[in-house]
Amino acid sequence: MNHYGAPSAARAARMWHEVADKVFVRRFLDFNVTVGLIIGGDAALVVDTRGSERQGRELANEIHWLTHGRMIVANTHHHYDHTFGNAAFLPAEIWAHEQCSAHLRTDSRTTQLALAAAMPEVAQEYTDTHITPPIKTFRESVSLELGGRTVELTHFGRGHTDNDIVAVVPDVHVVFAGDLVEQGGPPSFEDSYPMDWPGTLGRLLDVASGSVVPGHGQVVSRSFVEGQLADLSALAQLARRVRFDGGTANDALPLSPFPATAARAALRRAFAQLAGEL
């Protein structure tokens, strides 16, 4: 360990898992977030930047041990644990869905204060983070050329948020799914669109023939995503059926395929969608 408690270069490099040729994944203890690195001949794409400026600097330093190429960043969605490290990568181009940038501009200070209140022992780490919204944005899709390798960034629709994007590396059949897919726990529904999520995940499956990298947890296969899609579809169908019968989200809760805490948020959002409130 070095003076600041960060792992040595050799140890940190071993923490990166090469899931395909020059496509790396790193899972961090902080928020159990999983980030990616896609290396081309001229540039490298960093998929998500962790949850604070300090965490972003730690990530950038590790990446320099794997490549010295020009860096580009993609944020899979606006949540702090995927974007608050952006400042550490400047002056790199930072790409995301247009709504990701809008959320970061309007909501981030509230999130910083909430994080500081929840973790007072490291409050300054979050309040001092310089929020850096992406300035390279798109609505549907964009292709990034890394030098002999193309990465497709695509918004397949609403799901975990209204601005989820997927990074597809076609030459090695790897998909970075962000929080549209989560391993090790149920999906997070607080900002979600449960009635749209199954369709969005189905479109993701159209391009998922190899490894799928979730926003949290371990790399998964297509069959794992199919299982999560089945659960999300069951929840959407449940919400529609119970509401049609005059029931409430609480009535649907015992029948949900997800644990109670996740299901409560999911059904609240699903019923709001069905009522035209989202």
Architecture of the largest domain, CATH level 2? 4-Layer Sandwich
Strand count = 12
Low-confidence stretches: 1-5
Question: What's the domain count?
Answer: 2
Q: For the CA atoms, what is the radius of gyration? A: 19 Å
Placed side by side, the strands forming the largest sheet appear as 1-2-3-4-5-6-7
Strand content: 15-25%
What report would you give on this structure?
The strands form two sheets. The protein has a seven-stranded mixed beta sheet. Strands 8-9-10-11-12 form a five-stranded mixed beta sheet, covered by helices on one side. It has two domains: 1-140, Ribonuclease Z/Hydroxyacylglutathione hydrolase-like (Metallo-beta-lactamase, Chain A, 4-Layer Sandwich), CATH 3.60.15; 156-278, Ribonuclease Z/Hydroxyacylglutathione hydrolase-like (Metallo-beta-lactamase, Chain A, 4-Layer Sandwich). With 278 residues, the chain is α/β, with parallel strands linked by helices. It is 36% helix and 22% strand.
Keywords:
278 residues, Metallo-beta-lactamase, Chain A, seven-stranded mixed beta sheet, globular, 2 domains, alpha/beta, single chain, disordered N terminus
